[in-house]
């Protein structure tokens, strides 16, 4: 049995969606963000020293980091369905997009969030970096998903689960209007049955809603 330690409004949504898509038995241990600080509770630190989500337990072993969890679950339960063959050209691009989601793309988005929360969103240097980097990354991604429903081989893969977390939220907030291909891509992912099931579960687990 797989146990997912799920934190509301977090990257754990990637894993919750992936588990719904895989259709394997799993259980959820729900953790709630602090209503004032929006930080993860101490209960997650009892599971993993970093106190972050997602964390999964499989066969007595504990694994963290959403990218690693995504690859692990796909390798174990759906390698032929949710990733390209390892000897194919697409496999390298698959790994590239998985890392892109948490490295290149996440940095300016997190900086933008933190500067606003810290009340320093009028800093000329930070604003210039964030805007330039966001535009560069979104233009690259917009061109990459043009005419596609999925990022690699136009077939659902782990890379889509990784990219989904930020893009679907941005699309719902109408933050992607300047990038119609990304918006279409995000809306396509959000329309999938497994994603819809995951979001219904998230609403049940998220006590802040």
UniProtKB/TrEMBL annotation:
Ranges for domain GST N-terminal: 1-81
Top EC category: transferase
Cellular-component GO terms for this entry: cytoplasm
Domain GST C-terminal: 87-209
EC number in record: 2.5.1.18
Catalysed reactions, semicolon-separated: RX + glutathione = an S-substituted glutathione + a halide anion + H(+)
InterPro entries: Glutathione-S-Trfase_C-like, Glutathione-S-Trfase_C_sf, Glutathione_S-Trfase, Glutathione_S-Trfase_N, GST_C, Thioredoxin-like_sf
A molecular function GO annotation: peroxidase activity
Highest taxon listed in the record's lineage: Bacteria
UniProt KW keywords: Transferase
Protein name: glutathione transferase
Organism whose genome encodes this protein: Psychrobacter aquaticus CMS 56
